[in-house]
Amino acid sequence: MISNDYDKLIKNLFEGVYIVDPNRKILFWNKGSEAITGYLKEEVVDSYCFNNILQHVDQEGNSLCFNGCPLHQTLVTGEQFENEVFLKHKRGHRVPVTVRTVPIYDENKKVVAAIEVFSDNRYREDLFSENKRLQEIVVTDELTRISNRRYMEFQLTSATQEAQQFHQPFGVLFIDIDHFKLVNDQYGHNVGDDVLQLVARTIDSNIRENDVFSRWGGEEFLLLTKGITKKALLKLSEKLRVLVKNSQLTDESGNIISVTISLGGTIYNEPESVEELIARADQFMYEAKRNGRNQTIIK
Hints:
By secondary structure, the protein is of the alpha+beta class. It is built from 10 helices and 12 strands.
């Protein structure tokens, strides 16, 4: 189906590429696919994409493998499609990708296969910044590899000063993992650490480059986002909540573990202090907890 020259080229593309037959059996899986998803070629070739290996979901958390799969639509219609979705990495976290699907025809112009090309949206060249690299090198939380509390406190102080001087709006989200103590009690602290890393990776993979995301303490996280409205903060919060809910990991015993988060968010009000801002977001997070968890309160 692929000439030797094209085979060598596609194998080494940075983008993920895989090919399926009309029954959606995976025939080809390149090195880019391995790098982006964590799955080796040997783990997926000859299986079926509807076995939900990558478990594509949209921003609302809707599963696309059986309802709205671009690859299936291309096989049926012969049309090309492009979508932004979230695949499940082998390690359990969600990765934002742009998916493009293209049909393959035989000499009778019948669709005999389809190619899916997907790229990791986190690494678009225009998203890199020196500030992010500095953050990663200088002040990171050792376990989760995101910003630590000290760095967040510095950024919050800077943001409040900027808001008071230039009236630049910003918001914060206070995030807490629901029933985290039960995870530690049931599966042990090593799995608890894995859950913290899972949540951190999922959120960190799905925020803007200039947002500041940190581990605040224990199972608590804080997100600082500038130039945002209350409505946009709610939309962002719900997106993160849904993606964490749809992430999972598997422990050494084969147990599939997933968690939810409760979020409280607010917009900075001049001329309040950092302490007052965080206290208000924390209060709204606990209100979400009292209301049943796995939800957002933005005020």
